[in-house]
Specification:
57% helix; mainly alpha; 221 residues
Length: 221
C-alpha cells in the first residue's frame, strides 16, 4: 500500500517500516506508544520515575489540545514556542534518570525506547501537518482488532474475505464522514442497476446519496 509513497509516515517502531525509512520516507513515531511503555512500567512496579515521565508527556498533550484547531502554520509556531522547550526538558530529564537504572529494569527499557527514537518521536514539532501520535489510525482499526476472535468461525475463507470487504467499506465510509448504515443501504439498492463502469462512483470517497438518507440504525462493526 505504501509503495511509491514519499513524505512523513506516522507509526510506531515496527521493523516492517524500516525499509521505507531507508528509501527516504520520513519517520515520525507515535508519542502515545512511548507514553504507553512508561505507563505500563509505572503500573508494573510503581516506578516514580516512569510515573513522572508520564506526567511530563501529558504537558505535551495539553499543548496539542490547544493546537488542534489551528492551521498548520499557527500550530507549528505554538509547538516551537511551547512544546519544544517542554520536549527538551523531558529529554534531559529522561537522560539523567536513565543513568540511575539497571539495564533490565522495565522503566529503563521504556526510557531506552523513548531516547533511542527521540528524533522521530519529536518530528511533529517541526511540521504543523504531522500529529503527535497515530491514535486516529489505531482508533480506525480498533473495531476489527476487538472483533477478530469472534470471526474465527466466520464459515470459510471466502466468507472471511467477503466480511473483510464489507468491514473495510464501513470503516472507509466513517473516514469520509458518511453514516455507514445509510451508505450501505443506498449502495445495495443501487447496485443491481449500475454498470461496471459506474461502480467507482459508489466507493466511499466518491459516494453521494441518491436521495435523502433515512434515519440511521445502530451499526456495530
Amino acid at each position: 500500500m505504501l509503495q511509491g509513497f514519499a513524505g512523513t509516515l506516522v507509526s510506531d517502531d515496527y521493523s516492517g517500516y524500516h525499509a521505507l525509512h531507508a528509501q527516504g520516507v520520513t519517520a515520525a513515531f507515535c508519542m502515545a506508544h512511548a507514553r504507553r511503555k512508561l505507563f505500563e512500567a509505572h503500573e508494573l512496579n510503581g516506578s516514580q520515575i516512569a510515573g513522572h515521565a508520564v506526567t511530563l508527556i501529558a504537558r505535551l498533550y495539553e499543548i496539542e489540545r490547544e493546537a488542534r484547531d489551528l492551521d498548520p502554520a499557527a500550530r507549528l509556531l505554538l509547538r516551537q514556542q511551547r512544546a519544544r522547550p517542554a520536549a527538551d526538558a523531558l529529554h534531559a530529564w529522561l537522560s539523567e534518570q536513565r543513568q540511575r537504572l539497571v539495564q533490565a529494569d522495565a522503566t529503563a527499557k521504556a526510557i531506552d525506547y523513548a531516547l533511542s527514537n527521540w528524533r522521530a518521536l519529536t518530528r511533529y514539532l517541526d511540521d504543523g501537518n504531522v500529529p503527535i501520535d497515530n491514535n486516529a489510525a489505531e482508533n480506525a482499526v480498533r473495531p476489527l482488532c476487538i472483533g477478530r476472535k469472534n470471526w474465527l468461525f466466520v464459515g470459510s475463507q471466502q466468507a472471511g474475505e467477503r466480511a473483510a470487504v464489507v468491514m473495510s467499506l464501513i470503516e472507509s465510509a466513517k473516514l469520509n464522514g458518511h453514516d455507514p448504515w445509510a451508505y450501505l443501504k443506498d449502495v445495495f439498492e443501487r447496485l443491481p442497476t449500475l454498470k461496471n463502469s459506474e461502480l467507482e462512483s459508489i466507493l466511499p470517497h466518491n459516494w453521494r446519496p441518491a436521495s435523502k438518507p433515512v434515519a440511521s440504525a445502530n451499526v456495530v462493526s
